[in-house]
Amino acid sequence: MSPTPTPARPRPTIFGRGSYAESLRIGEILRKETVGGALLVAAAVIALIWANSPASESYFALRDFKIGYEPWHLELSLGAWAADGLLAIFFFLVGLELKREFVAGDLRQLDKSIVPVAAAVGGVVIPAMIYTLVNLASPETLRGWAIPTATDIAFAVAVLAIIGSHLPSALRIFLLTLAVVDDLIAITIIAVFYTSDLQPLPLLLAIIPLALYTYLAHKYRRFFKINAAAAWLILLPLGAVTWALVHASGIHATVAGVLLGVAIPVLRSQASGGPAAGPGLAEIFEHRFRPISAGVAVPIFAFFSAGVAVGGAAGLGSALTGPVAVGIIMALVLGKPIGIMGTTWLLTKVTKARLDSSFKWIDVFGVSLLAGIGFTVSLLVAELSFGHGSLHDDHAKVGILAASALAALLATLVLTGRNRQYRQAEEEEKVDSDHDGIPDVYQQDGTAG
């Protein structure tokens, strides 16, 4: 009698459907970032028009107007305040989102986190290599190798909302996660490679308010959830002092934003009331600060950073053909898709996983093109690389704007057709035959949690 054959184990899949709760949470974030992306683009366009108009001197005078208190190293121009101060709010949310994803989100599971994390790394390494190769003969421009490494989530999501409203939620979650990990890598690069004249004393002193901020946020999280004014009066001043000391240490102050975000508690223990107590402190803070970041901080930063005088058609042509702009355009438009797609494909071969049956590789390619929209963090790294207002900085900004527009256009061409094909599938996913508030497809997959 022959032995009963052992049934073959199903091959693991990538880009499988996440949990329904995670899908709802990501959808809410994407809706808010869509508005922010539209404001960001509008602010950048206004800055470009103003900087190249007959009234351009007034724009640069406004951008370079200084305000602050010099003994605390805080007499900064309005442009610097936007880059160092307002952008710290954006990175505070990055810190919140990173902790939320890796502590309580779907990415706490290795099988779900390995693909977007590895793809993000590939989407950083390949663009950096391409920029470096293009600028190898120009040592003074090599310092900008990190400019094309980051993805602008607000800009990319705004484009995705317009062209891909019916694309599967897993693809949108992948783009958001990819951008968040991208930002983590970018802020690490900023902290390690773009720190000049490090001052150990302010850095050590920053540990004191940061530690107190962390202790209070964890110890009294229920109190701060209920009393919003207390959070503003207690935690915000501690955060501001931490930011000022990190800024004075020579490390870019946006690093403080990430640290303050990561310090906020995410998991809700029994002591805090458990799930019945409602959203945790991190979720409360995200709800309060995301509109400020998307609607105020990032657009103002874009306004002061995107304004570059191109000097007419001749100046624009010179900027676009220079090694800085060429390297950035090639890195973002070609390097990002190659890095992300190549890494994802390689993972399917190494792990013998397969793409989820509901997707095609052309979908992943379209999202990879969207990841080539580098704007907010790229503009920041350009200023850190070459100095605010320098010729190379101006050329870098032209390259970033051109690459972002080209990546958005190519992604639109790829994803618009795919979006139409997914429209019917999306309607089927909403079917809830037992009327329990959870679509049947999530219950069939066992991912309703």
Automatic annotation (TrEMBL):
Pfam families for the chain: Na_H_antiport_1
Membrane-crossing segments per the record: 34-52, 72-94, 114-133, 145-163, 170-194, 200-216, 228-245, 251-271, 292-318, 324-347, 359-386, 398-416
Region (Disordered): 425-449
Reactions the enzyme catalyzes: Na(+)(in) + 2 H(+)(out) = Na(+)(out) + 2 H(+)(in)
Keywords recorded for this protein, A-Z: Antiport, Cell membrane, Ion transport, Membrane, Sodium, Sodium transport, Transmembrane, Transmembrane helix, Transport
Membrane topology: Multi-pass membrane protein
Function summary: Na(+)/H(+) antiporter that extrudes sodium in exchange for external protons.
PANTHER family in alphabetical order: NA(+)_H(+) ANTIPORTER NHAA, SODIUM ION/PROTON ANTIPORTER NHAA-RELATED
Family: Belongs to the NhaA Na(+)/H(+) (TC 2.A.33) antiporter family.
Entry protein name: Na(+)/H(+) antiporter NhaA
Source organism per UniProt: Arthrobacter ginsengisoli
Record gene name: nhaA
